[in-house]
Amino acid sequence: MSFRAWIVRKKIKSLFRTDLSGKSGAPDGNDFLAALKVSEKAIRQPPKTTVIKAVDTQFGGQNVRGEWVWEPGAGENQVIFYSHGGGYIWGAPKFYRELAWRLSKTCNARVFLLDYSLAPEAKCPTQINEALAAYDMIREANPNAVITMSGDSAGGGLTASLAVAIRDSGRQQPAALALISPWLDLTGSGDSLVYNGKKEVMLQPDAVRKGAQLYHGDMAADDPQCSPLFADHKGLPPMLVQVGSEEILLDDSRRMAASVEKASGDVSLRIWPKMHHVWHLSAGMVPEARRAIDEIATHFEDKWAAQ
């Protein structure tokens, strides 16, 4: 672990592992949301030369919102469909523009940041349906484009659920997937919630459980739409899964990779030593974050070249 990564981990821990409400006891789901809102001030924006175009329309009877972000000169027919994290209760494209710019520049692609509806006002499968509509819209508007998909944390789970829905509906599948610290099991059955509980610097098991309840609503937590870990993983696009070794969601990634492999799928699980949850967002400071983005670019480049 680099010294810069160590510094960032300490800053994250001081924010997300602190009770922001003033009451006694461990931080809970409310503290997690409060910490996310505080962290907004530290989120970097991309260079002013970055192309950013807002989308707010209807397609197929669904609202489609998001932003196109790309480095000038990026490949017109290479698209990354990205779903942000935030436990399904927080997040917006404006907080992911810098990461999208880095992906665009490194992957030579245009990035679409999906702005899906948040819980608790919107519950599963609303987000999947909105993502499907956005995917269809991009396919129709860019018939020659090769689309890949990525997402982090809850957005990694949404990306997996979207990939399953695309396969099951017979739509043209994306060329590849890249899941970053994905949240794939809303039941919280992974052993890493326990054995990494004191090592994790950002997420709290209680916050994960609360976010899960707000998202799945009346649906069962183990419904494959909510928890894509429990879906049929046969016939999914080539998948890269990146996760930190001390994350409480580590076992989500491990079990997903094992399931895809058992289904004879193409999957690469990359466990990064001591990296914090979605360390890619620290790319402006942390060298491991930049290397992880390079790894995604290599994964996508191979699939784009094969199309």
Task: Describe the model.
- The chain has 307 residues and is of the alpha/beta class.
- The chain has one domain (3-143, 162-306): 3-Layer(aba) Sandwich (Rossmann fold), CATH 3.40.50.
- 38% of the residues lie in helices and 17% in strands.
- It is built from 9 helices and 8 strands.
- It has helices at residues 3-16, 29-39, 97-107, 126-141, 154-169, 192-195, 205-216, 250-262, 287-306, and strands at 51-59, 62-70, 78-83, 110-114, 146-152, 177-180, 239-244, 267-272.
- The chain has an 8-stranded mixed β-sheet, with helices on both faces.
- The protein starts with a helix and ends with a helix.
- The model is unreliable at 20-27 (pLDDT under 50).
Give a brief outline of the structure.
Helices cover 38% and strands 17% of the residues. With 307 residues, the protein is an alpha/beta fold.
* N-end to C-end Cα span: 36 Å
Examine the coordinates and then state which fold CATH places here, giving the name of the CATH topology: Rossmann fold
Please tally the helical runs, counting DSSP H or I stretches of 4 or more residues. Answer: 9
* Average pLDDT taken over every residue: 94
Q: How would you classify the helix and strand content by structural class?
A: alpha/beta
Q: Low-confidence spans: pLDDT under 50, at least 5 residues?
A: 20-27
**What is the general shape?**
globular
Largest sheet: 8 strands, mixed
